[in-house]
Amino acid sequence: MNSARKRDLVMLIFGLVLYGVLQMMISTKIIGSFWELNIILICVNIILSASLNLINGYTGQFSLGHAGFMAVGAYVGVVATVKFGLPLIAALILGAIAAGSLGFLIGLPTLRLRGDYLAIATLGLGEIIRIVIMNIDYVGGAAGFKGIPHLTNFTWVFFAMLLTLFFIKNFVNSSHGRACIAIRENEIAAEAMGVNTTKYKVMAFTLGAAFAGVAGGLFAHQFYLISPTSFTFLSSFNYLIMVVMGGMGSITGSIAGAFVVTFISAALASFPEARMIIYALALILMMFYRPQGLFGYMEITNVGPIKKFLDKISGTKEAVT
Amino acid sequence: MDFVHQLVQQLINGVSLGSIYALIALGYTMIYGIIKLINFAHGDVYMVGAYIGFAAVTIGNLPILPALLISMALTACLGMLVERIAYKPLRHAPRISLLITAIGVSFFLEYTSMYFVTPTPRTFPEVMPNISFNLGGFIINGQQLLILSITIILMAVLTYIVQKTKLGKAMRAASFDTETAQLMGVDSDKVISMTFCIGSALAAAAGVLVGVYYNTIDPLMGIMPGLKAFVAAVLGGIGILPGAVVGGIVLGVVEALVAGFLSSTFRDAAAFAILILVLLIKPSGLFGKNTNEKV
Amino acid sequence: MFFSKKKFKLASMIACGILASALFTGCGGEQGSSGGEKKAAGDEIVIGSNFELTGNVAQYGANANNGLKLAIKEINDAGGVNGKKIKIVEADAKSEAAEAVNAATKLISDEKVVAIIGPAVTANVIAESQVATDNMVPVIGPAATNPDVTVENGQVKPYIFRACFIDPQQSEVMAQFAAKDLNAKTAVLYLDSSSDYSKSLGKIFKEKFEADGGKVVMEEAFLAKDQDFKAALTKIQTANADVIFVPAYYEEVGKIVKQARELGITAAILGTDGWDDSKVIDIAGKDALNNTYFCTHYFEGDAEVQNFINAYKGEYKTDPNVFAALGYDAGKMLVNAIERGGEDGQKIRDNIETIKDLQVGTGKITMDAATHNPIKGIVVIETKDGVRSLRTKIAPEG
Fold first, then answer.
1. Which terminal Cβ of chain B has fewer Cβ within 10 Å, N or C?
2. CA nearest neighbour of C130 among C152, C107, C146
3. Domains in chain A, ordered, with CATH?
4. Is 50 exceeded by the pLDDT of residue C14?
């Protein structure tokens, strides 16, 4: 058992403690239902931002179509539970498979594009997905899918989030992840070093899309009704904002970004007219003072005292990340 | 109406719709050309331009031409101000931070406007006679003809500025390599500022003309046209002026044909699909030059 | 394989953690049930306004919100209800179903409102209805005309009401009007495919019109916020139908009518209550609107609506549109329910259900307890040279 695995376990325990505390506060109504809902939203958004970070931050492929994959996961998920009576777990898995497969099919041709061209292509694909859904009467079309059972709860989203984070963290730290980071740093150099760039780009894109599908499934089973208006390119922007605000290439950053953005939005709910203005200003100021995002490339597990603590627990001297 | 007649009428519809995308895309593509920023706020600058024109016409009781010029002047200042305040400090930051700032500016313009003018749409008074010509059964709208000619004239003027004047030379130099240009004595900051000035004035012209033609303006009017104009610019080859115009018109024609002969609901999807297809076949757009990336 | 002693230790720790949290959960459940009581604070009654104040349908939500605020202001200026002032807490539905749920949850759990008015758009009302029902907070959707808003699986939702008539009524009136009054044999549907409202109206119009002996020869669609409709209109022109049915909102309608006339389409154009805004005339132009008809909730020339129109103009310096009028009506209905002894959600719900012959902004209404739809008349309005006139008035049924 190496020290990296021990550190994972420490973080897992920390996660479980956090879960216990939050669950207790929700159950005892210390956290009211509004904030409970927003904690659930934060967890869903963490899944989305971490998975988008895998594509944008770690692999350096500029994708603006995340809401589209989320929509696929959401709609496949609700069809599974409502029309076929499957349990939530099956719905989430099916949603992930559907979104992942679509990500694969879309990624294969489009990932040849670079930078802004890829951005506009993925934005367009996200919109195409939304328009197609809007025209399928089987799932309610523009009116949205009504009568979705409320199956999502804090436990589900929290463990789905934990799973996502551990998966992405381990992926990034694997040899596949190294290849992805090499592509981000310099695609041509990576290719020259023998990295199969297409393979890893498509792999990251597919995985990111699949997790977006999971998030979509959780999201859909929280809100009783989903409609295509929830999955416009403006929502994709929102997830991108979370990623950049937290720090491209940092999972801690994705968590922080999703938390901050969702929290600001919820906290400003009492000032509807000024909410977006304040949000916009916060965004601009944030980019001024920390253009690399809150965490940059840093992980919380590598921050001074926390790292020392973790090293002590897992009994290592050298950093293994 | 037989098929050929309908086809021609749809082409006319498409070109006139496309000329609006083209007009907005001109400013988009200029700004992208010089600092490689997808300026998501461009659509909102266009909206502000429309509102300034509206205020000049309704509160200032001005005729359309002075209103248009005032709007272009003030919006040009706004554009430079946005660049100075929001984009300039980030010139050496990662490009993605600049993009997020642009989204922030976009939200800020949209919702500040909404705060002051309410989300209710405004209607332009009739400031320009709206005549439609009937040429052998084909309907052509006078105002759209005007928009198309303004677009083409502006494209010609801009191409002249960029290709033949000293400012244009400086712009091309700064666009090619900002730092080297600076070493060669080009005041890059000033050139970038001028580009924003021209680009925003163009957006304002588009805003006022569209406001007059379609007759409504609202604080969120810039989102979709902004996106479509960006698509048009990429389609034509981003950074290339004639490309923006051709891209806009191609986009308009595709939309009109899809709406006219297939289904209107898939019109936007078709527009994006065409974009993706073009990019896959020619990744730098219709008019773009393929450049080899070096390590 | 990996079972080391340390790992076992960790596993047992995790197990303890889960056990502990489960224990807490158990305790919490019992406490929660006793503490979930709501009360109106002191001398104020707090109601929630959950409208789309930002996003792409903000214009409708903001207008309805203005109507509601006017209704509440009037009652507060007159001394309040039973000696108590009514306070509105606003939340923003952000033109999105999920956000409507979020906003409703905030109003219910943080602000402890006794009732919610809004949102404006059907899908958003449907989305929030489960939260409201679970917490026994009544909702009045001012302008949600889709039948599914108040009914689910054939059962009326106990806490959800509306302040308007429903889509089938509108479409039936217009289909009949087309077939009987205009002697139309063929019709084209031109629908907003991004709007549930438009689609369901179109569907019912088709059924009724074909039952009356007409035929729908073409169906076309556009998307909300579109500016240019000429491509589809050119296609519609080829159908050469007697009437074109455009159940949509005023901003798009104005442009559609204008561009249709520009292309030389002279057929009658029919619409529904989404047309009801004087801006249609400004956008389309006076001449273009000749030979157009729409149905709505009230006629601005009626004597009984003058009070509301004048009050609204006095407050906001602009003419009310249909959303403002219905927001106002919803406010009046809620005030009435509170006046008759409604202090908590349950009582208010009961009182809304028994509203009878209540004078609201757009006329007199009676709530149908079986469907939670108000029983009210429909008027068909003709526009000629920029002036609206009452074409027919269909009295409320029952």
1. C
2. C152
3. 35-232 (1.10.3470.10)
4. no
On whether both C147 and C188 belong to a single domain, the answer is: no
Residues B109/B75, Cβ–Cβ less than 8 Å? no
**Is residue A276 within 8 angstroms of chain B, CB to CB?**
yes
Q: Is C244 helix (H, G, I), strand (E, B) or coil?
A: strand
Nearest of C377, C375, C373, C397 to residue C140 by alpha carbon = C373
Which chain C residue shows the shortest CA-CA distance from B9? C234
The pLDDT of B161-180, averaged and rounded, is 89
The kind and range of the H/E element at B166 are helix B166-176
Q: What is the ipTM of this complex?
A: 0.90
Residues C236 and C310 reside in one and the same domain:
no
Which of C264, C283, C285 has its CB closest to that of B216? Answer: C283
C381, part of any domain: no
> Best interface-test mutation with A: which of B107, B227, B251, B293 has the largest number of A CBs within 10 A?
B107
Q: Which domain holds residue C122?
A: 44-165+303-376
Q: Which residue of A has its CA nearest to C48?
A: A270
Q: What is the count of structural domains for chain C?
A: 2
Of B89, B108, B293, nearest to A188 by CB-CB distance is: B293
Question: How many CA atoms within 13 Å lie on the side-chain side of A34?
Answer: 21
User: Angle CA(B266)–CA(B267)–CA(B270) in degrees, nearest 5?
Assistant: 80
Report residue C162 as tokens. Answer: 């509306």
B293 band by pLDDT with thresholds 50, 70 and 90: low
Q: Are residues C201 and C248 in the same domain?
A: yes
Residue in B closest to C264 by C-alpha: B139
CATH number at residue C55: 3.40.50.2300
CA distance C90 to chain A (A): 7
Residue A85, CA distances (Å) to A77, A82, A90, A216 in order: 11, 5, 10, 18
Residue C142 DSSP label: S
Note whether C319 and C368 are same-domain residues: yes
Q: Could you report the per-residue pLDDT of C110-136, keeping only the tens digit for each?
A: 899 999 998 998 889 999 999 999 999
Chain B residues with CB-CB distance to A131 below 8 A: 265-266, 268-269
Q: Domains (ranges, CATH) in chain B? A: 3-122+140-281 (1.10.3470)
Distance from CA of A197 to the nearest CA of B (A): 15
Question: Which DSSP symbol is given to A135?
Answer: T
Residues of chain B with a CB closer than 8 angstroms to some CB in chain A? 32, 36, 38, 86, 89-90, 93-94, 96-98, 100-101, 103-108, 110-112, 114-115, 223, 227, 230-231, 234, 238, 265-266, 268-269, 272-273, 275-276, 279-280, 283-284, 293-295
Cβ separation A27–C126 shorter than 8 A: no
Q: Percentage of residues in chain B with pLDDT exceeding 70?
A: 98
pLDDT tens by residue, C205-232: 999 999 999 999 999 999 888 899 999 9
Q: Is C95 within the bounds of a domain?
A: yes
Is residue C3 scored above 70 in pLDDT? no
Alpha-carbon gap, residue C143 to C128, rounded angstroms = 15
- pLDDT value for A321: 45
